[in-house]
Specification:
The complex is a heterodimer. Helices cover 41% and strands 22% of the residues of chain A. By secondary structure, chain A is of the alpha/beta class. In chain A, strand 4, helix 2 and strand 5 form a beta-alpha-beta unit. In chain A, helix 1 packs parallel to helix 6 and helix 1 packs across helix 7. Chain B is of the alpha/beta class. Helices cover 40% and strands 17% of the residues of chain B. Chain B is built from 22 helices and 22 strands. The model of chain B has no long low-confidence stretch (mean pLDDT 96). Classes of the chains: A alpha/beta, B alpha/beta. At the A-B interface, helix 1, strand 2, helix 2, strand 5 and helix 3 of A face strand 1, strand 8, helix 11, helix 14 and strand 20 of B. Strand 2 of chain A pairs antiparallel with strand 8 of chain B, so a sheet runs across the interface.
């Protein structure tokens, strides 16, 4: 069965679902079947959010544990919550900016050390990419375009060899006017910054 | 939401739609003329789409005050000849139940489709009832779509079937289908002008006992006739490769079964059912005869399985049937590819081979759903907490209700002690105030109050209860995605609407203690609570402040940016803001309290909470 499984995770309000949708839309432009699953409700902001994307000839919008080929995590600790969904040596793209939940401040849970998270991930894959999109975008005051930044990172790694034109088409379908301009800047920034990345 | 695509006239165009958006497209393609709902996850996006396109496409859409009303508006529109649709989450059908059952007797003139969005696994619900049982109980045909394109097709087919037999048609969705995206191929939008006239027929439309006896008989005959439709329906199909065992499956579970059987080359032929009531008896009988062993794979209740067992019994078949009763498949929670694979492997006595990728010893922090930064409910809860502490009341009980404020259950507030259903906070407060001596403080939202809070509040006044009710009026139906309600000033067509003032309504009942406060103003809110707790009887405080997400949106558009920070010179690390107020934007780093600027929505309530005036606006 020809399938490529992606997991997008993060915190409510970060744009997880939009990013997943945009990746599916590129797949459609490439004439590949895409399915996506998202869970809404309960948490508007601040809760853990994830979306599964499947590209290929499959019917189920969700995939088995251990079958993910790529994960984009918009928050470092959220990787841990969904790591069981991934194959060994899969792509892991992390936005290196923590969102500390209130449970940590209340002392009812703790936030793991980032270095430890990354160290254990390195043991499991050599395709680990860590980049602080939030910080880089804050310098340009466009932190809310994080999903387009990571869309840019994804387009650079481009595991499915999609054409760059189709990524731009999807951006143009999803944003208008000034917003499109800013999201394009963010997208290109993501592509540029990931080039500099070394493990 | 891609509204242009959902209403597009481009035939054959392939668009990527959410299951719920596809239901909306099906309604439009099928020439639907009236749709109603009360919002509830996982059904809400159907209404969000229809509300935005109703004028342009040319149909009527409304957010009704509750599901029963929504049901009646759509059912009666069908009696006037219009293709009509109503939809809501599974528990909404409980609210509509009274009219729902009888509507099966009365039937339809214009096509009438009911969509129930069930929630296996309870992603955002209080139970996971399988509404196929209720539809069968009513005696209605049931369709179970497997993907968004089928969601679209089934609404259209539902209209046709409903008109042909004069019966409402029930479509059962689940969260996974409603919230999956897939490719939908657009077909032509029907633009037939239908007769729009209510032709009186009281013998059919008024089920006094003499009429009802006839109508029930007719219903039984109709559903018998519809068996022939299920028998020839393309929604029921068999994937046959001459394998040793058979699987009968339905709806979304079909996808898991088909994927897993193909991927692992398992020895099963598959009968996938989309038209599940009445089941295609002859086809299933033939299928049963072909195998010694058959497994039935369906989410939640054994609805199809029980029918298959009856068929076996009636036809004296030898086939072994495996399903819920054999503990192979569970009646609990959502299915998924892993569960289906594990079950099928167990059935075949095969070992699982996969090693799961794990990281030992490092776990992510708990990140439960939480009230948003700036949420006015947090301010209300904090004010209640402060007053109770001041008055040394330790055992107050907090009946809660369905909405964002149910999250008051979490730390640090612990202010949700009971919750049954929409409006239950007030009925429960009545019971608790009669059965205990404890102070009772109930919470209900504005939309939930309009939905089911008014009769119990009348009950409370009439039966001389003693409790404080908070109506948390954030001017929207927030948790489901900000749909309007009768207190908001606009309606489902996007038009200006009259406003029902909650305080007038409550005063109209005869309740004397009615105060409106701004929860962002902590001292005003606390004074009102203190006053209320000193009095006997039913007291109502309306905490009015727009939903923080709406405010954020509005301020962003106005270009206003307000953010707060902790002035370290003044902060004495008392941690009241962290431990007692617990806004998600406030956190501790290196033993210092900080505010996350991205998350802070600038409500400023934390600056009132701080006893040292250490929280200030960033200038």
């Amino acid at each position: 069965m020809n399938e490529f499984n992606i997991l997008i995770v993060g915190v409510g309000g970060q744009g997880v679902l939009k990013l997943a949708e945009m990746i599916c839309e590129v797949s459609l432009l490439e004439n590949k079947n895409a399915l996506m699953s998202e869970i809404h409700g309960m948490a508007q902001r601040g809760g853990s959010v994830f979306s599964e994307v499947r590209i290929g000839d499959v019917l189920s919008p969700i995939f088995e544990d251990g079958e993910g080929d790529l994960m984009i995590s918009l928050e470092p600790s959220e990787v841990l919550r969904y790591i069981h969904k991934l194959k060994r040596n899969s792509f892991i793209l992390i936005n290196d900016s923590e969102i500390i939940p209130f449970t940590v401040s209340l002392g009812i849970s703790s936030y793991p050390k980032k270095e430890e998270i990354y160290k254990s991930l390195k043991d499991l894959t050599d395709k680990l990419y860590i980049i602080n999109g939030t910080k880089l975008l804050e310098e340009k005051s466009i932190a809310y375009t994080l999903n387009s930044f990571m869309f840019g990172v994804f387009s650079y790694l481009n595991p499915l060899n999609f054409s760059l034109d189709n990524f731009y088409k999807v951006l143009e379908d999803n944003f208008k006017g000034k917003n499109l301009e800013l999201n394009k800047i963010s997208f290109e920034f993501g592509r540029e910054k990931i080039k500099e990345f070394k493990i | 939401m891609k509204l242009k695509e959902i209403i597009s006239n481009e035939i054959q165009k392939r668009v990527f739609l959410l299951g719920n958006e596809a239901f909306a497209r099906g309604f439009i393609e099928g020439g639907g003329k009236l749709a109603t709902t009360y919002p509830g996850t996982p059904s809400s996006e159907i209404g969000n789409v229809l509300s935005k396109v109703a004028k342009e496409v040319g149909f009527y859409f409304e957010f009704s005050t509750n599901e029963k009303t929504a049901f009646e508006v759509a059912a009666s529109s069908s009696l006037s000849g219009l293709r009509s649709m109503t939809f809501f989450k599974h528990v909404g059908l409980n609210v509509a139940m009274d009219s729902f059952i009888t509507s099966a007797y009365i039937g339809t003139i214009g096509g009438f489709v009911i969509i129930s969005c069930d929630d296996p696994n309870m992603f955002s619900s209080q139970n996971e009832q399988d509404n196929r049982i209720l539809a069968k109980f009513a005696g209605l045909p049931i369709l179970e779509p497997r993907n968004p394109d089928e969601a679209r097709k089934m609404v259209k087919y539902g209209f046709l079937l409903s008109e042909k037999y004069g019966i409402p048609v029930f479509i059962r969705s689940t969260t996974r289908l409603s919230h999956m995206r897939g490719i939908v191929q657009l077909e032509e939008i029907e633009r037939v002008k239908r007769n729009q006239y209510f032709n009186k027929n009281p013998n059919r439309f008024v089920p006094i006992p003499a009429n009802a006896r006839v109508l029930h008989k007719n219903l039984v005959e109709k559903i018998k006739e519809i068996e022939s439709e299920s028998e020839i329906s393309d929604f029921n199909f068999i994937i046959k490769n001459g394998r040793s065992y058979g699987i009968i499956t339905s709806g979304i579970s079909s996808n898991y079964v088909i994927d897993i059987v193909i991927k692992y080359n398992l020895p099963f032929d598959i009968f996938s059912i989309g038209f599940s009531n009445p089941i295609p008896k002859d086809k299933i009988k033939n299928f049963l005869e072909s195998y010694e062993n058959i497994i039935v794979v369906e989410e939640l209740e054994p609805v199809i399985e029980n029918e298959v067992r009856v068929l076996k019994e009636k036809n004296n078949l030898k086939t072994n049937i495996f399903g819920k009763d054999d503990n192979i498949f569970s009646t609990l929670y959502e299915y998924n590819p892993d569960r289906v694979k594990n079950y099928l492997f167990k059935f075949l006595g095969k070992e699982k081979e996969r090693k799961i990728f794990k990281i030992e010893n490092i776990t992510p922090p708990l990140r439960p759903p939480v009230l948003c930064p700036g949420c006015p409910h947090r301010a209300t809860y904090y004010a209640v907490f402060k007053v109770l502490r001041k008055l040394k009341i330790k055992d107050a009980i907090f009946p809660s209700d369905i909405g964002c404020y149910t999250l008051g259950i979490g730390k640090p507030f612990d202010m949700a002690d009971t919750c049954y259903s929409m409006g239950s906070s007030i009925g429960v407060a009545c019971g608790l105030s009669k059965s205990t001596q404890q102070k009772v403080i109930a919470f209900i939202g504005d939309s939930t109050f309009f939905h089911a809070g008014i009769p119990p509040l009348i009950n409370a006044f009439y039966n001389k209860n003693d409790f404080l009710l908070f109506i948390l009026d954030n001017g929207t139906t927030a948790m489901t995605g900000h749909q309007p309600n009768p207190g908001v000033g606009f309606d489902g067509m996007g038009e200006v609407a009259p406003i029902v003032k909650i305080e007038d309504l409550v005063k109209g009942i005869g309740i004397k203690f009615v105060k409106v406060v701004d929860p962002y103003n902590l001292s005003e809110t606390m004074n009102a609570i203190e006053d209320a707790l000193k009095q006997e009887g039913v007291k109502v405080i309306i905490a009015r402040r727009e939903c923080a997400l709406i405010r954020d949106d509005r301020l962003r558009k106005e270009g206003v940016i307000i953010k707060y920070f902790i002035n370290e010179d003044k902060c004495r690390n008392c941690l009241i803001c962290v431990r007692q107020f617990s806004c998600p934007a406030i956190y501790i780093e290196n033993d210092k309290v900080k505010i996350n600027e991205v998350l802070c929505d600038g409500c400023g309530v934390c600056s009132e909470v701080c006893p040292f005036n250490a929280i200030e606006v960033i200038k």
